[in-house]
Write a structure and sequence with these properties.
78 residues; alpha+beta; 3-stranded antiparallel β-sheet; 2 helices
Amino acid sequence: MKPKTKALIYNLVGFIGIFLILRFSLLYLIEDVSHIVLVLIAAFCSSLLAPKFAVVEIEDKEQIKMKWIFLKGFKDVN
């Protein structure tokens, strides 16, 4: 599998995981708000909290790097 495809899948899995946790926890905690508003809030927060994966070419080799607000700097995935 190409590194760009892996990075895309990692981004998707990270976003979906955090989105589902936030969506159901907000649905449980806040019952008076419309479901559309809860989904929008969960999507916005998930896009901020999810780790970001990118492909970087270093010395003619593609590597996947991760950046996350809870970690300082970039981390190697492989």
